[in-house]
Design goal:
mainly alpha, Arc Repressor Mutant, subunit A, 3 helices
Length: 83
């Protein structure tokens, strides 16, 4: 059976779906018996989800900023040409 240290070392690979069938089975067996590691993996999943959501929100904000800049540029150019 895997140790808690080995579970921690493989946690990211597990969450990313990068483990083979045998490694995944070993991880699941350990997590079924070790509530501390189960909570650790759960916290990692939550952190990963929040990080991805923050990145998506930042990308959306960047896109909004670009659209606003484009609109302001168009308005500014229209004022300069008298349009």
């Amino acid at each position: 059976m895997l140790s808690c240290k080995e579970v921690a070392q493989r946690a990211s690979a597990m969450i990313d779906g990068e483990l083979g069938a045998w490694d995944m089975l070993q991880m699941r067996m350990h997590l079924a018996m070790c509530k501390g590691c189960e909570r650790f993996i759960g916290q990692m999943r939550i952190t990963r989800g929040l990080t991805e959501a923050a990145g998506e929100a930042e990308a959306e904000q960047d896109a909004d900023d670009l659209r606003i800049s484009a609109i302001l540029s168009e308005l500014h150019e229209g004022k300069q040409t008298g349009g």
